[in-house]
Fold this sequence. Notes:
The chain is α/β, with parallel strands linked by helices.
Amino acid sequence: MSTAKSQTTTVNTHSKIYIAGHRGMVGSAIWRLLEAKGYKNLVGRTSQELDLRNQAAVNAFFEAERFDVVIDAAAKVGGILANSEQPYPFLMDNLQIQNNLIDAAHRFEVQKFVFLGSSCIYPKLAPQPLKEDYLLTDSLEPTNEWYAIAKITGVKACEAIRKQYGKDFVSLMPTNLYGPHDNFDLRSSHVLPAMIRKFHDAKVNGHAAVTLWGTGTPLREFLHVDDLAQAVYFALTHTLPEHLYNVGSGQEISIKALATLIQHIVGHQGPIVWDSSKPDGTPRKLMDSSKMQALGWQPQIGLEAGIKNAYAWFLKAYSSMI
């Protein structure tokens, strides 16, 4: 376990902070937390107001606003199906978004930049739990390599700026996230919100059978998005000694056990059918988050309580999804 110490930083409640992707699950959680902490100078732009793929528009925005802090929570995201059907936009859109933000932050002297990535940056068959040092040591999981390659590029860009210019650019790699404002579209969502949607729809349709992909045997780790927001807040209020940190719960669960838990929380009483002709994805993906935890951040929300919270939000927002 790392024994490195973090130092406090000069970011405060008056700092001008741009949260890219502020309406998404991650960005909105960070916004809520910073507002609750008394931060009064938060800036967000919708994709209609600012296309982050447009370098000239991003540079003009940064030149006009002169931010103290930038948090990159903007990305094109999705599950196995979306990644396999749309490899080019998952690669190119994410490269353009993050590269424009990172370069503009460097160009216009942003004091602190927090880049948010994903645990999929690590090799498919890397030793478990996944350590930061395993980056680029083997081949990626084919079902999401396009997104992973883009995120790896962002990590290395932040590392390069930190190394060459001494700037406080840090990358946080969260494990599988869930919570309020998640994506519940069955064609593009990740496994946990997809299960919530499937079990709920089956429940209201007479407790019909629910068909899930794969065998149910892969192991996954999940983190409530509010715990990630706390990690971002920790990164804002401290100068972290290294460029890359894993952010996870440290707890893993099989997909089959996850399905049973969500089925119970939703109240679905029908059968579960496993379609083993569909891919499982990575067999196991548990992150070693000891470096971040040694500095002082700790996850607080248990999986069952977190899923209940996510399902409650889903129920409130459900009418707009159908």
